[in-house]
Every structure is written in structure tokens, then in C-alpha cells.
Amino acid sequence: MIDHDGWRVMGVRYTPDASIEGHLVFALKNEGLDLYVLKRIFEATGSDPIKEIVAATPTGSYARRIWFLYEWLTSDKIDLPEPPVSNYVQAVDPDLQFCIKGEKLPRYRVVNNLPGTKDFCPMVFYTDTLDGFIGMDLAARAKDTIAKVPKDVMARTAAFLLLKDSKSSYAIEGERPPQDRIQRWGKAIGEAGRQALSHDEFLRLQRIVIGDDRFVKLGYRDEGGFVGERDFSTQSPLPDHISAKHEDLEPLMEGLITFGGEHSKELDAVVAAAMLAFGFVYIHPFEDGNGRLHRFLIHHALALRGFNPPGIVFPVSAAILEHIETYRSVLESHSSKALPFVEWRETPEHNVEVTNETADLYRYFDATPHAEFLYECVAQTIEIDLPKEAQFLQNYDRFDEAVQNIVDMPERLINLLFKFLEQNDGKFSERARSKEFAALSEAETKAIEKMYSDIFGE
């Protein structure tokens, strides 16, 4: 068996038996759980082959797992007695995929350690990348960074990072809203994790995001939705992603809400945040506001699990904005795979109407690339952005004090002075010297330039 460049090549001796049991056992042993594929298989085979597998090896660990997964995914109960064994086997292999401690189910002698419910259960594989990030203990690093910064500076840093995240979240959507909307959404982000998720809470958050609802329908969609372009001449939809059917929104959102609460609290905080937030954006329950709410859910999941220190919001949206092309690729990692399985037709309003059953595409997806990407963004905010912004404010305070020692100047002008120097490589521009700061002497100008270079030179 050889692992290379994302591929696993297995020798002939690993070839599974040419039967349903052979292939299911091979998959469970080597490939982990793909709940969407498993459900499609079970719907195609029906219960008889599963009953035969369990009846032939009632004590077998793989037979019991297959039996449990069949009933869990299909809600079709098979007439079988409890296995004549006392040991329990885990439904999810904890060496392959993230899972919870779970509940013992005597009917199968299986521990249901699936990370979600059958209404919403993305899966994440353990990878070297995720193991590396988890080993960094980023939450502890953030606390160490904060402990080294004076409290007053940290408070200002926190306020700046909050505003930065709110502004970046709108920028990702290509929007430049007025400052009051940015601040209002920033306040909502700062309160992430305090309110339990619910249908009403999602509606409250959407109202904050949208602000002016005269041209946007608030609440869950009552028609189809898609992300993509339109044909310039006909306005026909050219979707890159098709949202969940509006008829499926209530159960899908109910599953997501359950996952986002107590059910997934045992999971790694960043992994849980990725599963929750990207699951939401794929469902796309609203006409507008989905992207910003998707990123709010990242903050919600992290805060709920105590990952970030109290009062601190990591500017994850700013990190996403810096890596926007990677972000789009991550979104497409599932959308591009799901799109061929969605059958749709164009409506008279040039929207999409899905004509087949698609809910499972949004319930069960591989969130591994999403978790890796989010961890990368969180690591950047903790390792780079947080200390950088704190250091900048401390340097600015030094700059402020040094200017005041050279010349008595109001805060408004010191801030303007800093901006001029920042934009002109630490030198006074001709305009600054002839207009706003014409009153400064040549010696004072040189002293301020040297002081700026000493503090911000790097």
C-alpha cells in the first residue's frame, strides 16, 4: 500500500470481494464514512442484503456498523435480534474521522459517535495539516499574546479587530455599506456565542445584516436559489452552486441548529466551526445575507467553545479576504461535486427550480478542506494579525507621546500627521509642509520624521 500526492494505491491482495458486503467492509475499513454515498447505496439495495450480512455474521463489528448506518440513514428498521456480544464498536473510526464520544445503542452493540444528526452531519477526516494546526494549541497562544499587552491597548485592539472583521465580511460580498451598518454588524459579531442558535435568532441576525429590507425578502426563501452568473442576453441562470430546495429548509436548518448547539461541543472548535458555517452557506436559506451570516457562525462556534479569549474576535473575515481565491476554491470543493446531481429547470422569473430530491447533498458532505482552510485563517489571525495590531497601537502611542514632546498638537492633527507620514514613506509631503503643518519649523519637521522612522521604520 502506497500513499502519494493525495492518492492511496493498494495491492491486489486488498481487492474486496465482489459483493455488497465486500465493498462496504472495504470502504468502512479504509475510506471512512461518506454518508451521502452510503445512503444512496442503501436506497438502491433495500434492507434484504443488509439483513443477510448481519444474519451471516451477527457478532461481526463491520456487520453491526453497516446495520446501524442503514437504519440511521434510511429510518427503515430491519427485523433482527440484538447481537449476542457484549462489546461495542464505534460507528465512526476515530482514527480516520472526527467524532464525538457518542451514545451506546444496545440494539446493534454500536456507539453512535457520529458528529451530527441524520438531519445534518458533515464529516471531517484527520489529516497531517489538521493534526499540525491542532498541535499548535492556537487558543493558548492567543491567551499568551494578550497577557503581554497592556489592558487598555488590548481593549482598543479588540475594538479595531471587531470593526476590521465586519468591514471585511461586507467586502468579501463586494459591498461598501455606510459606517453605521458596519458598526452595527460588528456589534453583532462581538456578541457571537451568547445567544443559542434558533430559527428566530437567524431571522434577527439577517435583519441586522440587511438593514434596508425594502427590496429584499426577509426570512427563509420561498423559492429556489443559486450562486453564479446570468446569461447577458437572456438572463438565464448559469449556476456555480444551487441552494437547497426551499421545501427542505426547515429540516435542514433544524439539523444545523441542533449541530451548532450542544451536540457538537466535544469537537475541536475550529473543525466544528467549519462544519457549521460552510454547511449553512451551502444550504443558503436566505435571499440575501447568507455570506455574512456564514462568517458570523464561525465566530459563534469559536466563542461557544471558549476558543477565543473573552472580548476578542479574531478577524477571520479579513484573513479570508486576503485568501479570497483559495476561499472560493474551498467553496467549490463541494459545490462542483454536488451540481451534477441537482436537476433543475429555469422559472419564468429566470430563477432555478430543483426537480429532484437534493437535501442529502447539504446534510452530508466532506468538510475536510473547509476545516483546513479555516484553521489556516485562524492561525493567521492569532500568529500575525492579533500581535501586529496590538504592536501597532503601542507604537502609535509612542508616536503620539513623542510628537507631544516636540510640539503641542491636538489629537486630531496628530492622527492626520501620522496618516501623511504613513502614506509618504515617513516624510512630509510638499502639501503637508505648505498647508496643514506649515507652522512646524524645519527642525521640528526633521525631528518628527526621525522619530517616525525610529518607531515605524521596519
TrEMBL record:
Domain of life, per lineage: Bacteria
InterPro entries (UniProt xref): Fido (IPR003812), Fido-like_dom_sf (IPR036597), Fido_containing (IPR040198)
SUPFAM superfamilies assigned to the protein according to its UniProt record, in alphabetical order: Fic-like
Classification via Gene3D superfamilies: Fido-like domain
Pfam family, one: Fic
Taxonomic source organism: Parasphingorhabdus cellanae
Protein name: Fic family protein
Ranges for domain Fido: 197-347
